[in-house]
Each structure stands twice: as structure tokens, then as C-alpha cells.
């Protein structure tokens, strides 16, 4: 290919550079939209100066949009992977997925809020001890794994009663244990990256989408998607 042909392929409206820029925008848009769903919890966390019953309840309520936001982020990056590039209309797609996840998995968010409330009270009452911290962290990790598993199989078309969907999700996760291990590794890495000096805040603008992409990629590589498809089918 000539130099002119190479330049045209690189700078064409559907060339490699354009696709790369659109991919970067997709990651930024999905991440920014997810961070908006987490904004109430972040603001309340910064504004709360003391631990009280009101602060705990408000904190759990403020965190409720994070669940549907995570579902929408996974949905947005699933479209990115399936369409091999920028799928377009990130705001409309995210909003639609957020509404769908809110209604479709409302039982999951309600259950997660209940467990979160118990964890918050345990942390407030016994958070000073190492044993309590480890217990709260372990339960929180299990809740995160269950939530991600349910979101992933829901995006693959799983439906039914809440207990049936949860059982299916946990079955798929235990059958492919590398998947939940990868999810936790992604979450821990993302949280650690946000703590980096100078770069942490900038990385946060891309990390939610990057984490969703990594989770979905891990699902495909370790066979979680294939196992889920077999269970659904």
C-alpha cells in the first residue's frame, strides 16, 4: 500500500484513527454516566461528618442507583464488544439500559440494599476490629459477585422468578470459578487505580467502562458466557 493509501486508511472517517477516537469516547461516556449514578453516594459520603441512623439509611438509599448504573455500564460495553467498536448513542443506550435494569432487577437492588444496611450497621458498631472488617469485606465481595453474575446472565436473556435467576447466576459462577475471581480482581484493581496520586482522578473517568469491558471479556475467555447460554437454553 502506498503512503497516500496508508494515510487515507488512517484518517478516513471510518479509518483506524476515527475508530480509536470513537472507542475512547465510548469508554469516557459510559464511565461518566456511571459516575453520575454514583454521585449521590459520593456527595453524601463527603458531606456526612458523623455516623448516625439517618446517615446510614441515607447512605444506602443514595447508593441504590449504582446497581442499575453498573447494569447499564455492562450493557453499554457489551454493545461495544458485540458491534466491534463505537455502537453510537451512548446517552440514549445508557438511559434505556438503566431504566431496564432498574425495573427488571428491582428485587436484586432491594436485596442488596438490605444487605448493605446490615453491613453498614456492623461496620459502624464493630468496624474497629480486624475480624469485623474482614467479615464485612467478605460479605461485600460475595454480594458484588452475585450482583455481577445476575447482571451478566440478565444481559444474556435469562428471565424468570428472582430465586430462579439468582440460582442460575450462582450456578454459572460456581461452575466457572475463574469468572468471579476475575471480577474481584478487576474491581480491586480499579479501586486501587483511583487511589494513585495525580492520575487517579483522571483514570476514574475511564475506569467504570474499562472494568465492565474487562469483566465481559473475562466472561468470554473463561467460558462463563458459554455456560450461561447452556443453562438458559
TrEMBL record:
Keywords: Membrane, Transmembrane, Transmembrane helix. The chain crosses the membrane at residues 20-42, 54-74, 107-126, 132-157, 178-198, 204-222. The keyword Magnesium does not apply. The keyword Transmembrane applies. It comes from the Bacteria. This is DUF624 domain-containing protein.
Amino acid at each position: 500500500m502506498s503512503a497516500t493509501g496508508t494515510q487515507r486508511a488512517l484518517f478516513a472517517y471510518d479509518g483506524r484513527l476515527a475508530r480509536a477516537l470513537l472507542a475512547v469516547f465510548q469508554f469516557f461516556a459510559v464511565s461518566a454516566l456511571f459516575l453520575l449514578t454514583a454521585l449521590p453516594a459520593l456527595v453524601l459520603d463527603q458531606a456526612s461528618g458523623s455516623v448516625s441512623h439517618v446517615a446510614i439509611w441515607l447512605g444506602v438509599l443514595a447508593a441504590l442507583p449504582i446497581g442499575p448504573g453498573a447494569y447499564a455500564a455492562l450493557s453499554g460495553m457489551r454493545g461495544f464488544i458485540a458491534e466491534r467498536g463505537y455502537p453510537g448513542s451512548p446517552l440514549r443506550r445508557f438511559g434505556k439500559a438503566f431504566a431496564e435494569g432498574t425495573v427488571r432487577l428491582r428485587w436484586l437492588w432491594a436485596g442488596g440494599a438490605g444487605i448493605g444496611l446490615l453491613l453498614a450497621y456492623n461496620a459502624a458498631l464493630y468496624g474497629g476490629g480486624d475480624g469485623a472488617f474482614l467479615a464485612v469485606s467478605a460479605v461485600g465481595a460475595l454480594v458484588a459477585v452475585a450482583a455481577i453474575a445476575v447482571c451478566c446472565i440478565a444481559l444474556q436473556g435469562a428471565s424468570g422468578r428472582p430465586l430462579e435467576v439468582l440460582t442460575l447466576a450462582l450456578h454459572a459462577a460456581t461452575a466457572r470459578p475463574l469468572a468471579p475471581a476475575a471480577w474481584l480482581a478487576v474491581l480491586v484493581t480499579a479501586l486501587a487505580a483511583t487511589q494513585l496520586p495525580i492520575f487517579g482522578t483522571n483514570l476514574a473517568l475511564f475506569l467504570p467502562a474499562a472494568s465492565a469491558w474487562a469483566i465481559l471479556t473475562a466472561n468470554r475467555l473463561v467460558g462463563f458466557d458459554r455456560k450461561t447460554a447452556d443453562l438458559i437454553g
